[in-house]
Amino acid sequence: MDVLTLAAINLLLGIAIFFSTIRLALSQPDHLYWRWFAGCGAALTINSLCGLLFYQQTPPHVMLQLVANVATISLHCCLLFGVGQLVRQPQNYQWLLLPISVALLHTLPELQQNLQLRLLVCFAAIILLNGLTLKILLPTCRQSGRFAFQLLSATLMFNLLQLAVRWLLYLLEALPWLSFTPPVFVHQLGFFCLTIMAALTLASFLTLLVEQQQQSLQTQAHTDALTGLLNRHQLEHKIQALLNQCNRQQQSVALLVLDIDYFKRVNDHFGHSCGDLVLQAVAGTIRTNCRDYDLQFRLGGEEFLICLANTDDQQTQQKAEQLRQAISQLHLHQAHWPAGLQITASIGWTIAAGQPHVQSLLEQADAALYRAKQQGRDVVISHSTLATC
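-> structure tokens emitted (389 positions)
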């Protein structure tokens, strides 16, 4: 395959990367990495256009190679910043000076008259950027196991390997005491390797998008749309897994069932939109007062379930009281709270030691909640106290 054909393919790949990622950047403004990935597509497009023009001019203008080289370095610079945003390790913006520095170096007579020297400078900059990108990507790749990260890591490794080999060959050619000249195909290999990298990068971006959509669908299936808490879909499975884990570590597990008192009156007197606001506020209070690894469910309607790992009776009682008080004070801290609206919650809880069945624990917590409602609501009742009440 000749150089012009490869440059044309790279141009199409650059356009494909740019338009696919710029659309995502506009539809997902909070995900800044799509903007950087769109920059990769724009830089590849510019590089490919310069390549097409370069080999159609006799002699080729030195400015075309300057723009092509700066565009190539900008591509890898955008990839570095995009991956940094993707894995939440933003990079220092000083690396944006690298394409500018290379452009300034191209104005030196020594570089304008020496193709090997220009290639050595550009390859060194790209190897540096690819190495930095791979350094921040590999830990996330190992932890997440996502195929998109694995594919992008493999792409960077391939690019680093071929660049290192070609950089070494050009270095040998630049040494004055050696009469070494790389084969002609080494120059053509650059366009071919750029084509492979561009295709793999585009595949990585598309794979990332597919994985994100699958994760979003899975989250929607397991999450309550109104409150953001887990729903009943995998309640028994998740609680049983936590029970098994805590049983192996000889730790107890507490289940709390929380019910908003007289919630129907809220909908009747203030409207369903206000009822939704109350549910969201209560869910936010539960999240704020629980640890990240505590399981938090909306069972349906105005009822919530909280599963606490490694807590004893005293700690569970304190947590339940803390939640009850925080909910009763929502009207003091929530913005846009309707005047005259004050809510309370009743809580029943139980402690699991050993490995009981999930359904029996839920029944115990429900029995404690029922007793809390009998005692006038806005109280916390433990299942262990029912026999003495």
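Residues 134 and 343 are 52 Å apart (CA to CA).
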